[in-house]
Structures are given as C-alpha cells and as structure tokens.
Amino acid sequence: MVEREGEGDRIFWSLRSNNGRSRIECTLVGRSEKSAALICRIDVAGEFWHRGGANIGPGMTNDFYVTLPQVLLDIRSVNSLYEHLIEWQRDKKSFIVSLGVLNEGDQKVEISIGRDENLIYSIEKPACTFTYACGSSMQGKWSFVVDQSCIRLCAEDIGEFVRGVAG
User: Fold this and answer.
1) φ, ψ dihedrals at 166, nearest 5°
2) What gap in Å lies between CA 147 and CA 52, rounded to an integer?
3) What is the per-residue pLDDT across 54-101, written as a single tens digit (0 to 9) for each?
4) Could you read off the pLDDT of 100-141 as tens digits, one per residue?
C-alpha cells in the first residue's frame, strides 16, 4: 500500500489476523548500498484482554509490540510471497517463504501460512507464522489465525508495495 505522508510516500504492506487483534506490518525504509536488498521496518503487534486485573478498563489492550527497524528483504522474495498468497486463495495449500537476503548478513525472515499446533486453525482459517532470527542471539516467532479476506487484503497491499518499490 502507498500512503501520502507530508513530503513523501509511505510504502508498506500488512497482514492482520482474522480477529483483528494481531498484525505484521512491513514498511520500506530504504535500499541497501551493497545489493538490491530493501531495508524495511517490520512491526509485529497484538492486543489481548487485560491480564490479571479487574478495574483496568473495558476491551482490549496492547499485549506486545515488536519493532525490527532494519530488516533486509529481497524484493524477489516479497514478490514470491505475493504469488503464494494469490495461489492460496485458489488452492488453500500451506506454504513458507523466506523473505531475507541470501548470503548477506545473519538475518532470517520467514512467513508461513498453514499449520501451528498451538492454535485452533483450519484449511479455511490457517495459521500465519512470522519468524525472525538474527544469529543465535535473537529469535522470535509470532503466530495468529487468518482467513481469506486477511490474505486477499495482504496480497493487494503487497502488489502495491512491489509496484511502489519499482516506481
């Protein structure tokens, strides 16, 4: 998606959970000087009921918010994610896509659509898992359930993202 912000455009894509409480958002920050890699900020966020307390207030509250400010992504892999999301809408087959840049740095970035034994999921409402690792010192994994509309909207965002990066 491309949003107009002041003097520039914000180029990003997002994938939300089917209950609207969790999301992954990837925003273009720049381009690597060493390769054709994109430098992106990735935010992973979730909301949940207030934990442990009465009288905190009604509804949901922020449960986690993780920002990865300088993730190197391969534009071909981002396009591959787009293609897999389009295919999933037809065949509902699980997939995993590595978005990171091969042979540059120690980051590992993956998104999968399919199974997660810790979630209640189905073929029509699969789990989305985002995995990030930077060497052996930092690793994270977040999962949530998505559905056809979440996947369709994300595919549309990524299509605009790829066009925005190319343009």
Assistant:
1) -75, -30
2) 30
3) 566 667 777 789 999 999 999 999 999 999 999 999 999 999 999 988
4) 887 666 899 999 999 999 999 999 999 999 999 998 788 999
Check: CB of residue 152 under 8 Å from CB of residue 89. Answer: yes
Report the distance separating Cα 145 and Cα 17, nearest Å: 6
Could you tell me the two tokens for 156? 């549309």
5-27 pLDDT, tens digit per residue, is 545 578 999 999 999 999 999 99
Rg (CA), the chain: 16
Task: Name beta bridge partners: 27.
Answer: 12, 41
pTM of the model: 0.88
Q: Which two tokens stand for residue 53?
A: 């307390």
CA 162 to each of CA 13, 85, 104, 122: distance values in angstroms, whole numbers, following the listed order: 9, 14, 21, 29
Residue spans of beta strands (DSSP E) within 53-126: 60-73, 95-98, 107-114
DSSP state of 100: B
Question: In this structure, which topology does domain 2-166 adopt according to CATH?
Answer: Transcriptional Co-activator pc4; Chain A (2.30.31)
Domain ranges of the chain: 2-166
